[in-house]
Amino acid sequence: SISYCYQNVTAEKDWQKLIKFARDQFKQIDILVNNAGILATETSQVLEDTSLKQWRTIQAVNSEGVFLGCKYGVEAMRETGGSIINLSSIAGLIGSPHLVAYGASKGLVRQLTKSIAVHCGREGYRIRCNSIHPGIIRTKMQDQVVALNGGDTNEKWKDRINMIPLAEAGTAEDIANGALFLASDEARHITGAELVIDGGMTII
Q: What pLDDT does 155 receive?
């Protein structure tokens, strides 16, 4: 059966409520995926165009939301072990001058993941923490990126596909499969890793 609990990832009390809900439903938490993220493009995200309000809005969800998820996830799992998977982006690996606030938030997720992986390992918690870095994926958020600064979106999509060695955009299922692997026992010796799912885009 599927259960759900409404949550605002920027609200600490909602994380506390969610952890209690999950424990009441399932007794034990084994996997936590920090997947919430926003682009929040008021205008563009070139540095000169990015307002402090937009910067803070993006950091609240993409950075602080992941921090809170990890904080309360580790607290819930440290007696029993588990797997935390944080969704970052290739924008957290390479410069993203057209998405300065978003890229910075995803870089934080990358570094936070590694710090948590080391901490949990040294404390003997048996909690693994890894990050996933999607590239160009067919989602509504990617449509937002393509639509930035105007122009023919079909032509802009073609240009983006041409940047990918495998010559196609990824799908949400590709990312879900990566998360499923990192959550599984087959990944038992993997922690602090960056699983890049980008069709080879960042290797050229």
A: 87
Annotation says 72 is catalytic: no
pTM value is 0.93
For residues 151-177, give the mean pLDDT: 92
- Which of 4, 6, 72, 102 is catalytic? The answer is 102
Position 180: which residue type?
Answer: L
Kindly tell me if the per-residue pLDDT of 101 is higher than 80: yes
Residue 106, C-beta contacts closer than 8 angstroms, at least 6 positions apart: 62, 88, 89, 91, 92, 133
CB 40 within 8 A of CB 103: no
- Distance CA(120)–CA(125), nearest Å, equals 5
Confidence band (pLDDT; 50, 70, 90) for 148? confident
Q: How far apart are CA 24 and CA 90, in angstroms?
A: 36
